[in-house]
Amino acid sequence: MRKPYEVIHEDDTIVIINKKAHVLSIPDRFDPTKPNLSGLLRSRYGEIYVVHRLDMETSGIMVFAKTEEAHAHLSEQFESRSIIKKYLALCQHPSEPSGTIHTSITEHRTKKNMYIASLKGKEALTDYEVIKSLDRYALVSLRIHTGRTHQIRVHLKHIGAPLITDKKYGLSSEFFLSQIKRIKFQRDKEESPLISRSALHSSTLTLTHPKTLKLETYEAPLPKDIKAVVYQLEKVINKKR
Fold first, then answer.
1. pTM over 0.85
2. What is the pLDDT of residue 185?
3. Which regions of the chain does DSSP assign to beta strands (E)?
4. Tens of pLDDT, residues 118-137
5. Is the dihedral of CA 218, 59, 151, 122 positive or negative?
6. What whole-number distance in Å separates Cα of residue 132 and Cα of residue 137?
7. pLDDT over 70 at 196, yes or no
8. Cα separation of 137 and 120, whole Å?
9. Average pLDDT over residues 177-185
10. Domains of the chain by range and CATH?
């Protein structure tokens, strides 16, 4: 079984980790026995405090506090929106290379645990920039100024640039190499997807360290599945040239 997280930084007040996709941030309310990061870190460090969370299918950087004081300090930064949170997403190519999405978000009326852009919802603000054009797709950098549930996924769908893979809001739930190039298969084998989760990665976290009070930036590298899709898309594009 692959390791569910990697430690990026650790000291006596905080732990910065790179969460793998398909791992819960906190215990499942219906099945608390499922492995989750807060439980795994408590078994390793003892008392640990959850500051924020990522969706199960989203990979990337998270911060946990080791002390009550650090937890309070970090929580205040999140509440005041002074922490800079940046993500990388593989999505359908936006119509504009960069922009700001300032559209409120609310719960869907009939679909459970699903959200939509709506004038009657809570304020949500996202900046985005295309950092790599991949024909009809793009690798996009995003900064969220608010922390609404599913904010990036909803906002990208709202501007007509949904994630390349996302069960709720994306183009499909899986992405296959055969979608972009012709390949031969052995009769007894099925094609494996290049990626089969939300193509979203929490890449950078900039915060004021609760002990040193210095501004620090921590980064989590792009995961293998997203890198694999980018690589294959670039290969196809270069072959056309």
1. yes
2. 67
3. 5-10, 14-19, 49-50, 59-65, 84-92, 98-102, 105-107, 115-117, 125-134, 137-144, 200-208, 215-219
4. 988 999 999 999 999 999 99
5. negative
6. 9
7. yes
8. 31
9. 82
10. 5-240 (3.30.2350.10)
Produce one character per residue of 91-101: b if its CB has 16 or more CB atoms within 10 Å, e if not: bbbbeeeeeeb
Taking the C-alpha atoms of residue 232 and residue 235, their distance in angstroms, rounded to an integer, is: 5
Instruction: Give me 105's structure tokens.
Output: 């978000």
Alpha helices in 17-141 (DSSP H): 37-45, 68-79
Tokens representing 181?
A: 């190039």
If you ran DSSP here, which 8-state letter would residue 94 be given? P
Distance CA 114, CA 107 (A): 6
**Encoded tokens for 125:** 């603000």
Ordered alpha helix ranges (H), 20-134: 37-45, 68-79
**137 close to 164: Cβ distance less than 8 angstroms:** yes
Query: In 3-state terms, what secondary structure has residue 50?
Result: strand
CB of 34 closer than 8 Å to CB of 27: yes
What confidence tens digit (pLDDT) does each residue in 169-179 have?
988 999 999 88
Other CB atoms within a 10 A radius of the CB of residue 56 amount to 16
Backbone angles phi, psi at 195, to 5 degrees: -150, 140
Residue with tokens 């100024």: 145
Is the model's pLDDT at 84 over the cut of 90? yes
Active site residue ranges: 55
**Residue 63 to residue 17: CA distance in whole angstroms:** 6
